[in-house]
Design brief:
Mean pLDDT: 83
Radius of gyration: 29 Å
GO molecular function: ATP binding; sequence-specific DNA binding
Modified residues (4-aspartylphosphate): 51
CATH superfamily of the largest domain: P-loop containing nucleotide triphosphate hydrolases
Oligomer: single chain
CATH topology of the largest domain: Rossmann fold
Number of strands: 18
Strand content: 15-25%
Domain Response regulatory: 3-116
Number of domains: 4
Shape: elongated
Structural class: alpha/beta
CATH architecture of the largest domain: 3-Layer(aba) Sandwich
Low-confidence stretches: 123-130, 388-407
Pfam families: AAA_lid_14, HTH_8, Response_reg, Sigma54_activat
Number of helices: 19
Domain Sigma-54 factor interaction: 141-370
Amino acid sequence: MTRILVVDDEQGARDSLEVLLEDHYEIECAEDGLCALSKLRQKNFDLVLLDITLPKLNGIEILKKIKELNEGIDVIMVSGLDCAHEATLSMKSGAFDYITKPYEPERILKSIERVVKKRFDEQPISYSSGETIFNFGSVAIISQSPRMYEVFQAINKVACASSNVLITGESGTGKELIARAIHAKSARAGKPFVAINCAAIPPELMESELFGHEKGAFTGAHIRNIGKFEYAHGSSIFLDEISSLRLELQAKLLRVLQEREFCRVGSHKTINADVRVIAATNTRLEDMVKEGKFRGDLYFRLNVIPINLPPLRDRKGDVSLLARHFLKKFSQLSNKKIKGITRGVLNVLESYPFPGNVRELENIIERMVVMGTEGEWIDEKDLSFDLLGGEDHILVGDETSISSDKSGLIQARQAFERQYILNALEKCRWNQTDTARLLKIHRNTLMQKMKVMNLRSQGEIQQ
């Protein structure tokens, strides 16, 4: 969230700006320039709203000191006088904008929005600070989630071993990327990474695909074929959707894992297999074992080192990081200059549960870039209705739905906000102070919204 420092010697002016901005930004106040400079040395701020008429040091002097302290901080000057000289001097000293009192709230909000857009536009997309990008050989993964840090630690620990790995997680979480990272970090990285989607190959062809076949082994086998395991000798093989293998093929795979050898279809010649197996699934193999649909002995052979990938909705902060990464990627691929993504769009994306995880986010950003306007920002108008639950019904929370042919986007957003606040109230047992803190809004703002939305607890309704 954008952090703003309000600097004004009038308590009323500070209070009014805080009430105006607190729902959308993180606000702190200072009563004079020296106090402001002290706060700026202690914390990072994105923007300063700075009154020109201040005791001790005037606003122009404070502006210059702010820029000496940190050139990257944006400053909007606020003055009780519409003075061309002050305005010109402010802009020459590095101010972003100059606003006169009494100012209209919309004027302040638009100026701040311009600052936010500019900062997003200037924010680097190629994360190289070490805090958001993690390199595993030739594979880079973007994240700032503690849940993903655990995965990265596991990659570093298991990469140099030859033990089998089972990667679990919902569809679209990036299981193949993790498998590639393990391979790229290992001593086998010099040989090709071999991947196969077990669900994409017809069952009758799967054995040949894995182990190869001899000429004439079956109808259509006109030449000898080298299978994936033979091709992956000395390297790593990734078996995606391992749960889709038929039981009889599971038995043959188990033998390969146990004996490290196999035969091509139609041959009795044994071929050694120095292959590291990395398998992945989005289903619970334990349940399939209980149901007799997956061999327990194969499961235990595969599950030597388990790695579970968290869904995107549990990776705090990663939606915005990945959205900007994909924005850069698809802007370059389409040779299209998109300025950036507005905070409003990022707020919607961050609140969306992403059942399709990272793959779904990537598809959404690609669509936005393709449909976006050259040289413009991606904003709320570019959002598709499926982000709110689908084309036919916009889902709000877990229970409410609004038929798209009866309600427009404004009504959908209002219903979504109502359900979102209701969920927070119920989570906090209708404690308004705790709920306001959870929602990161002022308690008075929450009370006003509850009144407008007619949100009352069961106890209040019964009274």
